[in-house]
Amino acid sequence: MTHSTYQLVASDFDLTLAGLPHSHISDRTKRALEGLRERGVPFAIASGRGPSGLFHHLERNNISPEGFYFCGYGGAEIIQAWDGTEIASNRLNGSAARKAFEVASDFPVEVLPHLGEFAYASNVGGLANRGQAWSDGLTLLDITPEGVEELRPSKILISGEPDVLERVATALGGELADSIEVTLSATTLLEVNAAGVNKGWALWALADHLGIDHTATVAFGDNFNDIPMLRAAGLGVAVGNAVPEAKLAADRVTFSCDDDGLAYVLEELFAL
């Protein structure tokens, strides 16, 4: 395919679009995003972070959201970033959210349901919970299992050691296999969404909303939760720092995030 064939670009945020430290987006990547905007090509950030957190990080990087879309919470919430208009919302079922919260809380992990500008925890003093809330500029509030059921969060984030998260995922899959989607977004982060909700679903939902053929989409990612999106896109691109499984799922592999791999491909595809 040539550059004129692609009509929608989606990218993971952490370690794909933005690098470390402090979720910094490079000048070269900013120029590539501006090039897409000038050509009228829609750009979506598909992230485990919620829309509120993504607004926070765009602002910190001095990037306008005009013409951008957010597929937040791993694809559960799709919005027009420039005005907040909701395109799709797939929050967890209340009873499933409560059960997932209770099951995960039986392990030595920190459990953090998310909705809107808030993060909730039974342990608001937990280091991981506080760090996640601070990173996205969220207000952290106490919550009980009953509160989780009433809340119906968009996502539940579970932080812990990799071997413990593996056990948590097994426990959740055994009891809630038909009600939730469980995926790793980092070695120490496990995400729980409603069944069928992932970044691949979100990419197609956004493409359908915009009247764009699924084959005319490009997606970038680096981790396990990006694999459905890489497979769903017309062109799936893994950055060089991606996990091996994401590289295998992609159509091509570019340079690492730190070496502006996303910008390199966008410059090529769209003649920027």
Which keywords apply here?
alpha/beta, eight-stranded mixed sheet, 272 residues, globular
Question: What's the quick description here?
Answer:
This protein has ten helices and 14 strands. It is of the alpha/beta class and 272 residues long.
Task: Describe the 3D structure.
The protein is of the alpha/beta class and 272 residues long. The protein contains 10 helices and 14 strands. It has helices at 27-39, 51-60, 94-105, 127-136, 145-151, 162-176, 199-210, 227-232, 244-249, 261-269, and strands spanning 8-11, 43-46, 68-72, 77-80, 86-89, 110-115, 118-121, 139-142, 155-159, 180-186, 189-194, 217-221, 235-238, 252-253. The strands form 2 sheets. Strands 5-4-3-2-1-12-13-14 form an 8-stranded mixed β-sheet. Strands 8-7-6-9-11-10 form a 6-stranded mixed β-sheet, sandwiched between helices. The relative contact order is 0.17.
Range of helix content: 25-40%
What is the N-to-C order of secondary-structure elements (H for helix, E for strand)? Answer: EHEHEEEHEEHEHEHEEHEHEHEH
Q: Could you give the distance between the termini?
A: 16 Å
Low-pLDDT windows of residues:
none
Q: If strands are numbered along the chain, what order do they take across the biggest sheet?
A: 5-4-3-2-1-12-13-14
Estimate the strand proportion.
15-25%
Shape label: globular
How confident is the prediction overall: mean pLDDT?
A: 94
Tell me the number of strands: 14
* Main β sheet profile: 8 strands, mixed
Instruction: Give me the Rg, rounded.
Output: 18 Å
Number of DSSP helices?
Answer: 10
